[in-house]
Design goal:
mainly alpha, 82% helix, 0% strand, elongated
Length: 361
């Protein structure tokens, strides 16, 4: 049971066709929190949400939760039984129920999913144009190497002269391009299948995380995304008066990024031995100096929840800036790459033409 609950959070994000999508969860938590804050009981609030729900799959999930509540389960237990909520969600709800701050927890969960949806839209906006252009580039390259270059090759055969080095290489590439393309697709498919089969192995998660963090520009963006989620989660749980070690346990379960998970495991062990939070975090480079310094100050004044809330907002602002920067950089870069590819092919085809007068003589 424990292993099933600890499914990678990142993989959940990338799954398609979810019964309870992130956008719907944002609306669910927002409306649920508003109803509870107005003084309506949990069961009645859930009944109102069921009445206004139009999507049959989500309606089935909510009706199942309602039935479990009637049978005596807590809201957190009912959410866990449904199988459509991650551990972080129902554990946070459980803490909210125990501390009498359920509407506050629901508001934070709504914000959590609002930020997720916002980030997805930003990333989709950044990568849609490059992805489309990349497909067009592959199509143009395929057409030129399979139609245009062979046509020039037939003309060059009539010259009876040795072709320039670059022209020979392009013609050789055109002859085997289809084979190369099929081989590349099969290689990517096999690599993806192997990666999927090893996705839960520690060595694989550690390796892929290190590789992701080393990607220019994108590595820092990935790091900021997970640090923002960690800070937001820490703020939510600590503001609900959750013990620090329990908070780190829940954040570790939901974060889905191995460097932070591993760091939190070690930090927890240090706290149990008497170390402070900032001392444990200082041993791991994934946590930047600003976070460690602010954590130290927050521990001294007992304001960890407020400090992590501010950090989450700062990281989110940084994420917004970096996504816009990536979009600004990628577009001209793609144009340069496409122009270079087409230019090299055309120059290689016209090089023999420059020596045409010598061939004729």
């Amino acid at each position: 049971m424990k292993e099933q609950e600890n499914i990678s959070f990142l993989q959940k994000e990338l799954s398609f066709g979810k019964v309870f999508p992130d956008k719907q969860k944002e609306s669910f938590y927002t409306e649920f929190a508003s109803l509870l804050e107005s003084g309506i009981a949990i069961q009645r609030a859930l009944s109102l949400l069921i009445e206004e729900q139009e999507k049959k799959k989500i309606l089935g999930v909510l009706e199942g939760i309602s039935a479990d509540l009637v049978s005596g389960s807590t809201l957190a237990e009912a959410m866990r039984k449904s199988g459509h909520f991650i551990s972080y969600e129902y554990q946070s709800v459980r803490i909210g129920e125990e501390t009498g701050r359920l509407h506050y927890v629901l508001e934070h969960l709504a914000k959590f999913y609002s930020d997720k949806v916002k980030l997805k839209r930003q990333l989709i906006g950044v990568f849609t144009y490059p992805g489309f252009v990349l497909l067009i580039t592959i199509g143009v390259l395929y057409f030129m190497l399979n139609s245009v270059v062979p046509m020039f090759e037939d003309v060059f055969k009539q010259f009876g002269q040795e072709l320039p080095f670059l022209t020979q290489k392009i013609i050789g590439l055109s002859r085997y391009f289809s084979t190369f393309l099929i081989g590349f697709i099969l290689f990517v498919g096999a690599l993806s299948a192997y990666g999927y089969s090893q996705r839960k192995e520690i060595w694989f998660r550690s390796l892929t995380a290190k590789m992701a963090l080393r990607i220019p520009v994108f590595g820092k963006l990935i790091e900021k995304i997970y640090l923002a989620r960690m800070c937001q989660s820490m703020s939510l749980l600590l503001s609900a008066k959750t013990p620090l070690v329990s908070t780190l346990d829940l954040v570790e379960e939901m974060i889905g990024f191995y460097p932070i998970e591993h760091a939190l495991q070690e930090v927890k062990q240090g706290i149990r031995k008497g170390d402070s939070l900032h001392v444990g975090m200082s041993r791991f480079p994934i946590f930047d100096k600003r976070m460690i310094s602010l954590t130290k100050i927050a521990e001294e004044i007992n304001q960890l929840d407020a400090t992590y809330d501010r950090l989450a907002k700062q990281y989110q602002d940084d994420i917004d800036y970096r996504t816009k920067l990536i979009g600004t950089i990628i577009e001209p870069l793609i144009i340069v790459i496409i122009g270079s590819i087409v230019g090299v092919i055309m120059v290689s085809m016209y090089l023999p033409m420059f020596n045409l007068s010598n061939v004729i003589k």
